Amino acid sequence: MMALSDAEVVRLRERYAAGARQVDLATEFGIAQTAVSAIVNGRTRAAAGGPIATRAPRPAPQRAASSPRKTLSDEQIEHVRRRVAEGDKRAEIAADLGISRHTIDSIISGRRGASAPKPLSDDQIRRIRAAAAAGTSQTRLAQEYGTSQQVISQIVRRVTYAHVT
């Protein structure tokens, strides 16, 4: 690849403004598509001249009106957790409840459906640390204690509950 002259940069920008695709311009001018993007958007060679592409702001994503977020009750969330613990397939649980598999995963991981975190006792903290030291997975401990893996990780690393020995 060779550097483009200012005249070539202007011609490239004009062709892009007229509707040419970046990949086609890259082939034509013998440069990478990422270089074309940088040139047409003015991130490089801004002083060379020619029309600089301006982006229209992207609209915020809208949730489809046909699929509003479903609010699950605490009982439904516990039902999901119980069925997963019993070995039911997550896709089947999701279909039964009319929710996505992603929602099931979010409930199990603690990203969704968790009410205010319950404080753990000093004895529970000691048991968590002992079980983790013995090789129990943080995910398993999170399920057992009704919290997230991240909370267990912070306990094990003594980021939280550092006073408990």
TrEMBL record:
Residues 49-69 have a biased composition (Low complexity). Residues 70-104 form the Resolvase HTH domain. Residues 49-75 are annotated as: Disordered. One of its GO terms (molecular function) is DNA strand exchange activity. InterPro entries: Fimbrial_Adhesin_Reg (IPR053721), Homeodomain-like_sf (IPR009057), Resolvase_HTH_dom (IPR006120). Keywords: Transcription, Transcription regulation. This is Resolvase HTH domain-containing protein. It comes from Branchiibius hedensis. The lineage of its organism: Bacteria, Bacillati, Actinomycetota, Actinomycetes, Micrococcales.
